Amino acid sequence: MKTESLERLMDKYREGTLSDEERDELNRLTHRDTVMAAASQRARGIQHRTRLGIGFTVLVLVAGGAVWTLMPRTDKAPQMAEVVTPMEVTVPEPVVEQQAVPEVQPQRQHVQKKSARPLTAAPQRADEDEPVVICNNQCEADSVISDIWKFLTV
Q1: Which of 26, 35, 42, 149 could be a cystine partner for 9, CB 3.0 to 4.6 Å?
Q2: Given this model, what pLDDT does residue 138 score?
Q3: Residue-wise over 72-86: b if at least 16 C-beta within 10 A, else e?
Q4: How far are the Cα atoms of 64, 67, 132 from residue 73, in angstroms, in the given order?
Q5: Prediction pTM value
């Protein structure tokens, strides 16, 4: 009889035609209050264990970070450069056979040397027979080369 009434109440629940008295009867037959209390108790236990696990993990990470930060380091000692002496490399000198070289007398040529003038900030007057090469950033390359050629050939 109990199963028949439970089936009938479930059908009415699905159809949406369940009255308040029939709802109370369905809850009593399905032990809804005890099932809901047990489910709530299990959910609170899961939440409690999760919070404890997160708190413990945070505590371990903070303590580990503090210990790691405060530990003395042996590798932070000042490093000194090592003095290295250069290696001596001996290269044998090549043996050169001396041959008789005929003596050649150099021809003397008359070379006119010009005296070097000191550089000054203001341009000096050049002698009229001595060409002067003056250039700024607006000179053309051909004119500079021809002035240098004139200077070298005089």
Answers
A1: 26
A2: 65
A3: eeeeeeeeeeeeeee
A4: 16, 12, 71
A5: 0.37
